[in-house]
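W.,

You were right to be curious about this one. When I first looked at the sequence I had no strong expectations either way, so I just let the prediction run and decided to look at it fresh. Below is the sequence, 82 residues in total, followed by the output.
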Amino acid sequence: MNEDLEKKLINRINELYHKKESVGLTEGEEIERKKLHQEFIKNFRAGFKQDVENLVIIDKNGKEITSEKAKKAQRKKGLRKD
């Protein structure tokens, strides 16, 4: 998701939150809020997963200690040559 869409999503979620706290939401707005929240969580998890899969861990002696599961994901994405 690009930054503009993500900002619009967050802004709309915040608008609905503030309206819910002040005057309440209509049934349609509550459905929209839940849908937007689910989309936000889905995008957050996807981004977090990508960050973790791209992580390379090096110990204090300079030896790579990245988990095999992460290495496998990195190979699948073409990020590793080993």
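Here's what jumped out at me. The chain has a mean pLDDT of 93. And, maybe more interesting for your project: The radius of gyration is 19 Å.

Coffee later to discuss?

I.
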